[in-house]
Amino acid sequence: MSRLKSTFNKAMTFVQTAETVVCAIGLSITTLLIFAQVVNRYWLHFEIMILGDLALYCFIFFMFIAAAVATWNESHVSVDILKAKVLQGKPMSLAVHRVAMVLLSIGILCLLLPPVHRFLLRAIEYPEYGTLVRWFNTSWLMETFAFGMILVLVHLLVLAVRDVKNLRALRATRDRGDT
C-alpha cells in the first residue's frame, strides 16, 4: 500500500510540475504575442491579424491548464471572509469548512462534466476551423477544456482525501481530550 501511495504521490508531483511548466511557458508566449501585436499595431502601424488570434488561442489554452494549477494550489476563487474571520482559531470548524468546500466543488464539477463530455465529443466529431487561417483546427481548444476539467477533478479528489484525513485526525485528537 505504501508503494502505491508513493507512486501516486510521485505521479501527482510530476503532473503538478508539468502543469506549472506549461503555464509558465504559456504566460511567456502569450505575453510575447501581445507585446508583438502592440508594437506592430501602435508603433509600426502594421497590424498582423494572426498575432491576435494566436494570442487568444494561447491565452485560452493556458487558462484551462491554469485552472488545474489554481485548484491544487488551493488558490481558486472562494469566499474567504468566512474562513478568515469567523473560523479563525477554530481548527475543527475550519477542517469541516475545508471538507465541505472541496466536496461542494467536486459536486458542482460533476454536474458540469456531462455537458463538457458532450462538448468534447462534438469537438472531436466536428472540427471547427479558424477564421483567418482556414486550415487551422480550433477544436483543440474545446478538447483542452475537457482535459483541464479532468485535471481539476483529480486535484479536488486528492484535496478531499487529504482534508477528510485531517478532519478525522482532529476529531480523534478532540475525542482523546488532547485539545
Rg, rounded, reads 21 Å
Number of strands: 0
Q: Overall 3D geometry?
A: elongated
Mean pLDDT: 81
> Strand pairing plus helix content: what structural class?
mainly alpha
In percent, how helical is the residue content? Answer: over 70%
- Please tell me the total number of domains: 1
List unreliable stretches of 5+ residues.
none
Number of helix segments? 5
Q: What is the succession of H and E elements?
A: HHHHH
Query: Strand portion, in percent?
Result: under 5%
Largest sheet: none
Distance between the termini: 31 Å
Polypeptide structure, described:
It is elongated, with a radius of gyration of 21 Å. It is built from 5 helices and no strands. It has 179 residues and is mostly helical. The protein starts with a helix and ends with a helix. It has one domain (2-176). Helices cover 82% and strands 0% of the residues.
Q: Key terms for this structure?
A:
5 helices, mainly alpha, 179 residues
Task: Give a brief outline of the structure.
The protein has helices at residues 2-43, 49-72, 80-86, 91-125, 139-176. By secondary structure, it is an all-alpha fold.
